[in-house]
Sequence to fold (459 residues):
Amino acid sequence: MASGNDFDLIVVGGGSGGVRAARMAAGTGARVAIAEEYRYGGTCVIRGCVPKKLLSYAAHFREDFEDAAGFGWTVEGARFDWARLIADKDKEIDRLEGIYERLLKDAGVTSYRGHARLLDTHRVEIGDQVFRAETILIATGGHPIFPPGHGWDLGISSNEAFHLKSLPGRVAVYGGGYIAVEFASIFNGMGAEVTQIYRGPQILRGFDDDVRDTLAGELVTKGIDLRVETMIDRLEKHGDGVRLHLSDGEILEVDVVMAATGRRPNTENLGLAAAGVAVGEKGEIKVDAYSRTSQKNIYAIGDVTDRLALTPVAIQEAMAFVDTVYRGTPRSMDHSDVPTAVFSMPTVSTVGLTELQARQAYGDVDIYRSTFRPLKHTLSGRDEKTMMKLIVDRATQKVVGAHMVGLDAPEIIQGVGIAIKAGATKQIFDATVGIHPTAAEEFVTMREPVAQPVKKAAE
Fold:
């Protein structure tokens, strides 16, 4: 440890990325402290992907009970208890937070509860104490934001959705991103009347167009009232609920309105200006490929940098940081071909480029696409389709994108992601024997590319 320092490393933020960095750095012999003002585990564990997926599991049971009849089962007396689900979810989150704290303790990390603020490039104020460190790592994550407009004090974000006292009967979800479609699916699956409102022409902006169109169709089939190219102009209190004034002139009355219209990095009151740390227009901390900020001894990882806001990405960035600073093997994290999932109903998962991105990058591409009814639903009778798509660079035959909407999509795409990361060609996919009968085998049995779009003459 450098002379005059209380710690070699102070980590600001106890989410998945910060905790991983602190633990692994301590494992190299460094003296490490971590500060967290709320709960260890961060967005993912406390108020994000983990509790959201638990709620998503719960939402699937209604369809499972309905589907069971096609397989000879009679399910009588099934009823849903929202309060019990939330209580059980909270117990699991408490358990996971305890694990995070224990991992830090076992690694020899000194933990502090309190808001941390940089006083300069080496000093950090935590509560009423000031500590000096050779290196500082900022991993404070992000938070949901509400859209502009009147009356949004009547709305909730995803944070509050996890703690509602009861299941609302009528829900409006405002937004078209993955958080919006996930919560629209959750509330719909639990029996609420759901309206999803999005200002753009189609949900899941940035995803492949076939994915967007397929999921939108499935959401509507499941009973979600999906309204695109529509905005909420203002909200007003109406009895025990909320009245929404829409941009098309319609007035909609709901019990709960949830905003899922974006997130911002947590950089308020961190002392970044005092430390000379540069930030971008969204408040994100600017970093180089090695997660180093404008100050050579201060680093930042995860959502606070506004790169890829995914928990596994923050963890990988943390590992790259430890390798760079404490293991003598400098490296940057590769942010290309990162698999991702949307836990909507049905689920979405993708890896690699969209069709539009591939055409822009490679010019000529071959598209393999299959849409079919899953075997399960041949007996359940449910009208739900699965869509699978491969995008291939025609010149090299390298598979540069894979996309799926349907049952078990994230479980399937994880394996496909390994192949794409390894640079597999379409011929390797073709030579791989499928597991029958599964949906996954479709990725290795698609043989004929779809017809190429006709190029329109310049007008």
In short: The chain has a mean pLDDT of 94.
